[in-house]
Amino acid sequence: ALPPTIHESRLSLQRLLPRLRKSFPTEIEGADWAAFEDRLERHFPVLFDLLWQVYGPSYDFFFHVEQILRTCAESWLERDADLKSLDAIREGHAHWYQSNRVVGAMAYVDLFSGDLSGLREKISYLNELGVTYLHLMPLFKSPDGDDDGGYAISSYREVDPALGTMDDLRELAAELRQQGMSLVLDFVFNHTSDEHEWAQQARKGSEEFEKYYWMFPDREEPDQYEQTLRPIFPDAHPGSFTYHTSIGKWVWTTFNNFQWDLNYKNPDVFNAMAGEMLYLANAGVEMLRMDAVPFLWKEKGTNCENLEQAHLLIQAFNAIARIAAPALIFKSEAIVAPDEIKKYVSEEECHLSYNPPLMVQLWNSLASRNARLMLHSLPKRFELPQGCSWVNYLRCHDDIGWGFEDRDMWEVGMNPHDHRWFLNHFFTGNHESSFGRGRLFQHNPVTGDARICGTTASLCGLEKALYEGDELQTEYAIRRILMLYGIIFTMGGIPLIYLGDEIGLVNDYDYPEDPEKAGDDRWLHRPSFDWEKAENRKNPDTVEGKLFSGMLKLSQIRKNNQAFHETRTEFVDVGNHHVFGYFRVHEGQSILCLANFNDEPAIVSATRLRQLGMRKTFTDLVAGQSIVATERLVLEPLQFMAIL
Ligand code: OTU
User: Fold this and answer.
1) Which end of the chain is more exposed for a tag (fewer CB within 10 A), N or C?
2) Confidence band for 377, pLDDT divided at 50, 70 and 90
3) What is the distance between the alpha carbons of residues 118 and 177, in angstroms, rounded to a whole number?
């Protein structure tokens, strides 16, 4: 069947609209319904086309389209006036997130501040750092015991009672908004927990809800699928399916066995999840971290990652947001091969994306003490479509997987297998040149694959240096952290601070004592925030004082210089492979950032600087010094400069 033309989709809307209006005879009065219809007219053709591509040739297609429009309308009618005015503001200033004034931070509510009301008391701390975007880890109802750090959601409409209530969440969002901070939450839409209402119905044998998940009576189909799947959490279970004895069925569980993958081949699932998404938007969430996007669609004979339909589904969710919650934007979480990551980024799909290629390159350069692979690889895929941005980060709550493009490694003379082996040894402290104190995650003895856990401070050598009482190494560890964050704050995109890094929190070795956490080594780098340590930030002689003031300076440099606006970044080879360099240019301002990854001083020749268009005298914004480079510029070990 041919896809509908724009004219045909308009005709469909003309038929559906009167019925939609009639379903809400009284509610539409005074609810800014005209604005809704206006957006519907604008975005329906796109939505209709996407839905057609995914669900089109089925007998009940129009029924589902109508249901989806009802979900949009109901949500709009419930959206509060404050958020509706934010919608209008954001539409007039669509690329607000590209501003150099945006600084992100992320934290677990319980670990950072106990609960949601405790968090309101910590807003001033976030303000101190200049944070304008706060990502809170999943805070919804989830199973007792292991819940994958909240990523197994039992209800998208109920806050975990230990953290507060939905009203607390709404109030927090409103207060953040008032203080110029956007609330970011996860949209965990690939799976629900096995205790979600839908899963419970499915367990009871409800035909309707069994179709919400992927359930099989025997191994026949799971075996067929598994021929081409890669295991994601091999420690939790081999393969991608779990046998549930109570129901006698195999259930698709890409991640842990208590996380049941939703079946998006069923349009009811899409509609239901659109409702959950809009519910979050109406609670005041301004940005959704689209969790685990690669896995949304499954097809036999493929690896069931990054399939075309996954993209179409995200675009359809996006179109729904444009219609019913226009202030809402998406951030893609696709921790996959560099070439696949970019495919999720466009204004029609995800406005923002994590930048794992940058993250892994930074850790690699730190271990290798040079920037060769990074300079060869990053420029190839850094540019994003108009209006989109990266979210640049060093650490998050997850492990670090060495997601380089093998091709890039061969091109600079590296053996991908051996080099990954080196990195895993390096960051677990098992290499002669190591300073890192990490642990392996999901080590797969069959393939030899493994990822790395550990906090920024521990991976940068602070834990080891403090333990050994080595002052020089402590100083170097501080420099490493600030150099890496220097890049995060100045590279094109939004910088994201993993809260705790600004005071150098090291690994938490007590997590195995907590049965909820014992099975998952990622808890190593999820320590409780240490407010006593944080007090030291006021004392410039302490490690915390040095790190915090260093981060603060970086945050201010970013905010005070328009060169850091938007995403455009011009990478440059400064003629010394230890030094990573790039220009940021915007509205007449041009800043050259330089980072020396070596533990020795590094020299950049004045001739090279002149070739790059630099004058003889310039100012380093980080050290706050002017520099005269007649013959050469010398960077201290692990120094980061932003020169103007
Ligand atoms: C995400 O991560 C979350 O960030 C994890 O904390 C969750 O456990 C998981 O989803 C399940 O909800 O495999 O090792 O690119 O790499 O989504 C982390 C996709 C993960 C995956 C990523 C996933």
Assistant:
1) N
2) very high
3) 17
Say yes or no: CB of residue 367 within 6 Å of ligand 1: no
Distances in Å between the Cα of 335 and the Cα atoms of 42, 197, 449, 488 are 33, 29, 15, 18
Name the strand (E) or helix (H) holding 116: helix 116-121
Q: Say what the pLDDT of residue 42 is.
A: 96
**Domain range annotation of the chain:** 570-643
Expressed in angstroms and rounded, the spacing between residue 76 Cα and the centre of ligand 1 is: 31
Domain 570-643: state its class.
Answer: mainly beta
pLDDT score of 74: 97
Ligand 1 mean position, distance from CA 210 (Å): 24
State the closest ligand 1 atom to the C-alpha of 149, by its place in the atom list counted from 1. Answer: 6
What integer is the mean pLDDT of 390-396?
98
Q: Please give the Cα distance from 307 to 295 (Å, whole number).
A: 8
Ligand 1 lined by 146 (C-beta under 6 Å): no
What pLDDT is stored for residue 233 in this prediction?
Answer: 87
pLDDT band at 478 (very low <50, low <70, confident <90, very high): very high
Note the ipTM here.
0.94
* Ligand 1 pocket check for 68: Cβ under 6 Å: no
Q: What pLDDT does residue 294 have? A: 98
Average confidence (pLDDT) over 122-134: 98
Question: Could you tell me the distance, in angstroms and rounded to a whole number, from the CA of residue 439 to the centre of ligand 1?
Answer: 18
User: Facing residues of 641 across strands?
Assistant: 594
pLDDT at 178 over 90: yes
- With 0-12 CB in 10 A as exposed, 13-18 as middle and 19+ as buried, what is 528? middle
Alpha-carbon span 199 to 218, nearest angstrom: 19
**What gap in Å lies between CA 613 and CA 241, rounded to an integer?**
58
Q: How many residues does the chain have?
A: 644
Instruction: Determine the Cα–Cα distance for residues 348 and 311; give it in Å rounded to an integer.
Output: 10
Q: Is 587 left (phi over 0), alpha (psi -120 to 50) or beta?
A: left
E runs forming strands in 485-616: 494-498, 570-572, 579-586, 589-596, 602-605
**Do residues 267 and 306 lie in contact, with contact meaning Cβ atoms separated by under 8 Å?**
no
Q: Which residue's CA is the nearest one to ligand 1's atom 5? A: 398
Q: Is the pLDDT assigned to residue 208 strictly greater than 80?
A: yes
Of 383, 384, 392, 378, nearest to 350 by C-alpha is: 384
CA pair distance 342, 357, nearest whole angstrom: 10
Q: Cα(first)–Cα(last) distance of the chain, in Å?
A: 58
Q: Which residues are catalytic?
A: 291, 333
**Could you give the residue ranges of the DSSP H alpha helices within 497-593?**
531-535, 543-560
**Does this model's pTM top 0.95?**
yes
Kindly indicate the confidence band of residue 446, based on its pLDDT and cuts at 50, 70 and 90.
Answer: confident
What percentage of the chain carries pLDDT values higher than 70?
100
Question: Which of 432, 438, 368 shows the shortest CA–CA distance to 400?
Answer: 438
Pair 53, 3: CB distance under 8 Å: yes
3-state secondary structure of 586: strand
pLDDT of residue 455: 98
Q: Which residues, in sequence order, are bridge partners of residue 2?
A: none
Query: How confident is the model over 607-636, as a mean pLDDT?
Result: 95
Task: For residue 394, give the nearest of 434, 428, 364, 351 by alpha carbon.
Answer: 364
The atom of ligand 1 lying closest to the CA of 396 is 4
Spatial separation of the C-alpha atoms in residues 625 and 627, rounded to whole Å: 6
Q: Is the pLDDT of residue 283 over 90?
A: yes
Q: How far apart are CA 45 and CA 595, in angstroms?
A: 48
Q: What angle do CA 46, 52, 58 make, to 5 degrees?
A: 160
